[in-house]
Amino acid sequence: MSNPYSKQETVGEKAVRKFKDQPFVPIGCAVTVGFLLSGFKAFRDGKAARSQQMMRGRVMAQGATVAVMLGYAAYNGFKFFPEPETDEQRNARILDPNRR
């Protein structure tokens, strides 16, 4: 039975925690989106060669991001299904006053 007084982790808190755990994944995503938007702008401006360069950069950035994700998975031992934590462990983790 779950504890009705346990604090739920907000979306912002989860995003910050994930960014601290795996900082290169969101950075890679941002770089990929940057290449994509730059490629679209070059295409709109009629610069076909520049657009093609940006799309190639996007593919490389996307590949690097996937490689980093696989690297984190390998580093963490491919824990796709981690052991479920107890309510006490979860509350201690979330409600820890020293947590940033």
Write a short abstract of this structure.
The chain is an all-alpha fold and 100 residues long. It is 68% helix and 0% strand.
Can you describe this structure?
It is found in: Mitochondrion membrane. Its main location: mitochondrion. It comes from Triparma columacea. Keywords: Membrane, Mitochondrion, Transmembrane, Transmembrane helix. The chain crosses the membrane at residues 24-43, 55-75. With 100 residues, the chain is mostly helical. It has 4 helices and no strands. Helix 2 packs antiparallel against helix 3. The chain is elongated. The two termini are 28 Å apart. The mean pLDDT is 86.
Name the descriptors:
single chain; 100 residues; mainly alpha
Strand tally, please? 0
| Main β sheet profile | none
Shape: elongated
Instruction: List segments where confidence is low: pLDDT < 50 over at least 5 consecutive residues.
Output: none
SS class: mainly alpha
Radius of gyration in whole Å, from Cα?
20 Å
Distance between the termini: 28 Å
Report the portion of residues in β strands: under 5%
The topology string of helices and strands comes to: HHHH
Number of helices: 4
Range of helix content? 55-70%
